[in-house]
């Protein structure tokens, strides 16, 4: 029996044992969710001018975890999920794609962390969710749990109508340890200020992210490393209780003009813009959600294999790597959702993307439609 199998047995044994405890005395909270997805990619032009074959897939994702409250200020959490263990972006399993006839599904530990929370200070160490304010996945994928340390201090202004709260958040995440001093690691550092205004109708969150020694291709397939110094200005505003708008602007302050590893026509591709308008939510049974998002993401305004992998099927599979390469594109996402119950909803999304700067004969394009059934329990 493998060590991983023993770990899963221990996890679910603890789950069973804790479930027998009187609910009024529990210090443990469980969180699980399941998603079933129908997905179709069509009419997608490749860089050589030919078209990719249309593709239809049935997919699913399962995640489960718990949080254990050690005392009034300390807690421990963990989560396991489905997905290729080598793909940080992809927890979804394509039905029928496993290695054998109805072979078993890969599971991995996605989170394991200790968290401190007291008064206005929150901090954690280990592997956990991205701790910075964001309103989409076009900079950082929700499925990725970075590893390192994060801190968040919040000051409340209860009697001030103009500003309701101000937070400062910081983190140091190690992408790859190189068995030397910390400054020689591949890492991500971030700092962010989050202010909420006008009875929390408006949120403003300027941020700065520094990526050190990032490979141009993931999974050890790269040919050179880059540093990224990304300034992000984000804001969102509630026009009414149901109508919200948001804007994100990214600019990479690194200068690649003399980098011979980068094609000259891509060296200045360092800015990104995302705008969205949303109506409704899916918090309660019978709720509707409608959202339209526009994105213009230049090549080096994000690190593409840490960002979303939803908008198209562009990836690094031709190099033997598993990450997506969804930058250097402009496009639209249209979303409509309906809540069948409080934690049970249907979401339909359509995408269109087109390459901003062609890397071969033609600009690549992509069309995608998805229907998700989401269940939380």
Task: Please provide a written account of the structure.
A 16-stranded antiparallel β-barrel has the order 1-2-3-5-6-7-8-9-10-11-12-13-14-15-16-17. It starts with a helix and ends with a strand. It has one helix spanning 3-19, and strands at 28-42, 55-69, 74-82, 93-94, 107-118, 121-127, 147-156, 163-176, 186-197, 202-215, 225-238, 243-252, 271-280, 288-297, 329-341, 344-355, 365-376. Helices cover 5% and strands 51% of the residues. It is globular. With 377 residues, it is mainly β. Strand 5 (107-118) and strand 6 (121-127) form a beta hairpin. It contains one helix and 17 strands. The protein has one domain (28-376): Porin, CATH 2.40.160.
Tally of strands:
17
The major pleated sheet works out as: 16 strands, antiparallel, barrel
**Rg over C-alpha atoms, rounded to the nearest angstrom:** 22 Å
Helix/sheet category: mainly beta
User: Which CATH first-tier class would you pick?
Assistant: Mainly Beta
Number of helices: 1
Strand numbers in spatial order across the main sheet: 1-2-3-5-6-7-8-9-10-11-12-13-14-15-16-17
Give the low-confidence spans.
1-7, 15-24
Proportion of residues in extended strands? over 45%
Oligomer: single chain
């Amino acid at each position: 029996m493998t060590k991983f199998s023993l770990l899963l047995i221990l996890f679910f044994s603890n789950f069973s044992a804790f479930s027998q405890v009187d609910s009024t005395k529990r210090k443990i909270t469980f969180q699980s969710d399941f998603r079933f997805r129908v997905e179709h990619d069509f009419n997608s032009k490749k860089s050589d001018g030919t078209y990719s074959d249309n593709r239809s897939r049935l997919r699913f994702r399962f995640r489960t975890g718990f949080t254990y409250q050690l005392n009034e200020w300390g807690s421990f959490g963990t989560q396991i999920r489905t997905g290729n263990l080598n793909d940080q972006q992809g927890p979804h399993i394509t039905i029928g794609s496993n290695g054998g006839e109805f072979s078993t599904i890969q599971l991995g530990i996605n989170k394991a962390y200790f968290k401190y929370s007291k008064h206005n200070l929150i901090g954690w160490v280990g592997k956990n969710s991205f701790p910075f304010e964001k309103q989409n996945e076009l900079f950082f994928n929700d499925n990725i749990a970075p590893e390192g340390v994060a801190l968040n201090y919040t000051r409340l202004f209860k009697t001030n109508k103009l500003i309701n709260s101000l937070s400062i958040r910081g983190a140091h995440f190690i992408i790859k340890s190189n068995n030397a001093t910390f400054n020689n690691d591949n890492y991500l550092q971030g700092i962010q200020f989050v202010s909420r205004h006008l009875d929390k109708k408006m949120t403003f969150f300027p941020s700065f992210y520094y990526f050190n020694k990032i490979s141009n291709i993931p999974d050890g397939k790269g040919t050179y490393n880059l540093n990224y110094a990304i300034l992000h200005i984000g804001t969102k505003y509630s026009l009414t209780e149901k109508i919200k708008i948001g804007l994100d602007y990214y600019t990479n302050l690194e200068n690649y003009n003399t980098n011979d590893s980068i094609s000259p026509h891509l060296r200045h591709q360092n800015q990104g813009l995302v705008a969205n308008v949303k109506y409704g939510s899916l918090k309660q049974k019978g709720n509707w959600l409608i959202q339209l998002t526009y994105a213009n993401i230049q090549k080096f305004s994000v690190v593409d294999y840490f960002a979303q992998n939803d908008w198209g099927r562009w990836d690094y599979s031709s190099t033997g790597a598993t990450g997506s390469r969804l930058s250097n594109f402009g496009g639209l996402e249209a979303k409509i959702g309906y809540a069948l119950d409080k934690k049970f909803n249907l979401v339909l999304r359509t995408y269109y993307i087109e390459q901003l700067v062609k890397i071969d004969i033609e600009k690549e394009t992509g069309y995608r439609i998805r229907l998700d059934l989401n269940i939380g329990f």
